Known about the structure:
By secondary structure, the chain is an alpha+beta fold. The chain has two domains: about 35-120; about 130-260, Jelly Rolls (Sandwich), CATH 2.60.120. It has helices at about 1-30, 35-120; strands at about 130-135, 150-155, 160, 165, 170-180, 185-195, 195-205, 210-220, 225-235, 250-260. A five-stranded antiparallel sheet has the order 2-1-10-5-8, with no helix packed on it. It has a five-stranded antiparallel sheet with strand order 3-4-9-6-7, with no helix packed on it. A hairpin with a 2-residue loop joins strand 6 (about 185-195) and strand 7. The protein is rod-shaped. The termini are far apart. Mean pLDDT is about 80; it is low at about 25-30.
Amino acid sequence: MVIRSKSIQLFYVTIMKTYLIILIVVVVCSSEPHCSKFHYEEKLLEKMIRTEILVENMKKQIDDIEARVTGAIAKLNEDTAKWKGEIETMQESSKANLITLQEKAKSELDKNMQAVEDLKDKVVSPNIAFHAKNVKNDKPVTGTTIVFTDILLNLGESYNTNTGVFTVPLGGIYLFTVQLCIDQSKYIDTGLVVDNVYMDVARHRDNYYSVCCYKLTTTISVQSGNRVWVKVINEPNSGSILYHSDTNYWTSFSGVLIHTD
């Protein structure tokens, strides 16, 4: 009976220990919420929901950023196309303006070149001038040409010492000078003619019983091919009239182009 009582006591002790252990566990679990499986799952679900909401917000933000980037790219492409069109238009306009400027420059250059050519034609030519002295006949008669025989200058080879005629090679304004030295107590009337038309006339007379020289100087406009010479208008004297001395008295005829037409 004693043994049985001990066994019963031992059983009751074991039951009491077990009960105490369960009681301790319940108390501990009641003070620590994570010890509940339901509570853990609830918290886990809450975290998942929060994570899902966060992911949704992030997705919205990403979609918004993507939409803005897409819009910005589209706007950039649109602006690029617009700028490209404007640049092409400017290039075409610049090309057209350049062509216009080139054409204007060429036109101005052509005008300037033509002006230069015109000026070149009007420049006084230094090779159109002559100067001859001494006469072929010291007693020319009325209506004849006074021929000056000794060439001092004949640039252009336009004065003829055989005929006494200057043939105009280039039209323009010429300065002609005639100097005649008259013998003692003589006189003569002469004129400068262009194709038999008098351009100037003069009387050369000696009243001092010595040789005197007189000049006839005139400026006239002539055309290319005109013929110019000194013609005797009146010669009423006997004997020699014109006098020439290389040391003291020169009879001479000269002409020079001073301006072209």
